[in-house]
Give the backbone structure.
Amino acid sequence: MIQSEKLSAACNERDRIGYQQLFDEAITKLGGFFKPPILSEEDVGKDVNMLSLVKENMPALSVANVKKLAEILRKETGCNQLDINYCAILRKFHRIRYAM
C-alpha cells in the first residue's frame, strides 16, 4: 500500500480496489473467530454475514488502519484497542458469539 501511494493517481486507485478487498477479507476473517460453530442444519440458517454486520463501522482504508487490524489479528488472547471503529466492530462480533 505504501509503495502504491507513490504511483500515479490512476494506478493508486486501481490498487486500492484490491487492497479494499483484502481489508474486507481480513475483517471477515476476524469475524469468523467469533462465529459459533455450525453443528446442525438448523444452525446453517442462522449464519451471519460478518462483513455486512460491521460495514458501517469499518474505518477508511489507510496504512494506519491496516496496521491496527494486523495488530488485532496477531493477538492470541485479549486486545486493547482504542480506535472507536475497531471497538465497535469487536463489540458486534462478540455479541454474535456470546449474546445471541
Q: What stands out?
A: The CA atoms of residues 35 and 97 lie 6 Å apart. The chain has six helices and no strands. Helices lie at 2-5, 9-32, 41-44, 50-54, 63-74, 84-98.
